[in-house]
Structure to design on (249 residues):
């Protein structure tokens, strides 16, 4: 089957550049970006029902920019004024630098591991064991970070501050036809079925990145045509390039 229209289930790149555009063009195809999921904050009532007081803590832990956005956004809705002496522990320098969007960045208040990573972050927090940490988390969070902090015997609490939901498609978008769809999370697969309750795959080829996403595709009763990463293709872009090359032989 000739692949001419590829749907990338991610937001359109702000820069207008992407390896997917280049790969599609190389094989006479067109790549289209459309986010299948959205992230929203929990309501103020939902947060208050968790019985967590942000101001009982001396440090906030951020594992992503999304966590940071929803922490400060929801804090504002709750009318919680974050004190100037609050400390911030971030999973890497990329997330730490994003703090400048929300607070006056002072190096003595911001901490992150040089190499980045969750294990390194926990070890760094262990060196500041007199702090009381707060973790803003997603509704579908994993418990590994909580378990690591518990093992370190650190003082902390956590609360759900945001969740992933399915994006709503317009009637025109639902009618659009593609030769291939590429998914990057189980939530994206859920969104597909949410918007197309009677979805029939037919000749549509489906690609998925990551074991959880691949499993979600198969559990939904869909055919998985391309899985990544692999030993020879560590990214979805690399896997797609190889796949299209084989299809065009």
């Amino acid at each position: 089957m000739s692949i001419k229209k590829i749907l990338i289930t991610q937001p359109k790149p702000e820069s207008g550049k992407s390896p997917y555009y280049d790969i599609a063009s190389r094989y006479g195809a067109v790549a289209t970006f459309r986010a299948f999921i959205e992230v929203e904050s929990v309501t103020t009532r939902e947060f208050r029902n968790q019985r967590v007081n942000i101001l009982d803590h001396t440090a906030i832990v951020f594992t992503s920019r999304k966590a940071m956005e929803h922490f400060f956004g929801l804090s504002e809705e709750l009318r919680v004024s974050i004190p100037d002496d609050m400390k911030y522990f971030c999973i890497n320098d990329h997330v730490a630098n994003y703090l400048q969007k929300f607070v006056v960045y002072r190096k003595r208040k911001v901490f992150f591991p040089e190499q980045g990573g969750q294990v390194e972050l926990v070890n760094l927090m262990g060196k500041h064991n007199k702090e009381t940490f707060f973790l803003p988390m997603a509704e579908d969070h994993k418990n590994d970070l909580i378990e690591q902090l518990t093992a370190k015997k650190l003082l902390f609490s956590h609360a759900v501050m945001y969740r992933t939901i399915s994006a709503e498609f317009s009637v025109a978008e639902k009618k659009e036809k593609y030769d291939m769809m590429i998914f990057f999370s189980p939530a994206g697969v859920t969104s597909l079925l949410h918007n197309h309750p009677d979805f029939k795959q037919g000749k549509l080829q489906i690609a998925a990145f990551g074991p959880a996403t691949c499993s979600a595709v198969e559990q939904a009763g869909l055919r998985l045509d391309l899985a990544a990463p692999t030993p020879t293709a560590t990214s979805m872009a690399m896997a797609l390039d190889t796949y299209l090359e084989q299809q065009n032989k």
In short: The chain is about 35% helix and 20% strand. The two ends are 12 Å apart (CA to CA). The longest strand covers residues 155-166.
